[in-house]
Amino acid sequence: QSVLTQPPSASGTPGQRVTISCSGSGSNIGSNTVHWYQQLPRTAPKVLMYSTNQRPSGVPDRFSGSKSGTSASLAISGLQSEDEAAYYCATWDDSVNGWVFGGGTKLSVL
Amino acid sequence: EVQLVQSGAEMKKPGESLKISCKGSGFGFTGHWITWVRQMPGKGLEWMGIIYPGDSDTRYSPSFQGQVTISADKSTNTAYLLWSSLKPTDTAIYYCARSSSPYGFLDHWGQGTLVTVSS
Question: Taking all residues of chain B, what is their mean pLDDT, rounded to a whole number?
Fold first, then answer.
C-alpha cells in the first residue's frame, strides 16, 4: 500500500480534460513539493511536472499541476492518444526521511 | 548529453549475489545524487535509496535497509546496487535516476535493469 493515494485508473476521449489526484498527509504533500512522472508502456519513467507546477522543457502546456493542503493534482487537457501511460506522483516524506510514490494511475485514451 | 546507462538483464537463482550498475556521463557525476527505484512486475515505483557519489553519503528507505547495498565509484562515474542473497521477490526492474539534491526531482533516468530470480 502506497503512502500517496492515487486512483488506479482514469480515462478520457481525445480532446477531453482529465485530472489525476494524489492524496497524502502533512509529512509529505503538506510539507513538500510534488513531482509527477509519466511512464509510457515498456519504457523508463520520465519527469512530467516538478515542484508541483513546473514543466520541464519539452512537456506541452496541456499538462498542469497544482497542490492544496495534503493533496495534489495533475491535469491533462486536450487529451491525445500518446498520453496513454501510467502517471505517478512523488514527494519527500519528512517522517520516512525519504521519497514516497503514489501507486500510479493508468490513463486510457478511449 | 546526460546519460545513465544501466547494466543488462540478469537471471539468478535464490541465494545468489548480484551487483548491477548505473554509469553516468555528460554531467558532473560527483555533484549529483543517484537514486535507485524498484518496479515489481505490473506494479508501481518504489524508492529504495539514494547516494551522493561525491562523498558516498547514502540513505535507504526503511523498506530496503539491510536488504540491499548502494555504493558508487566516482573514478568510473558508476553507481551500484548489490544483493548478497537474492530472493524470488527481488524479481523486478530496477531503475537508477539522477537528482541535484536528495530532495530534488529525478530529472534523468536509466533504461532499467530487469532482474529475474528463479530456481
Answer: 97
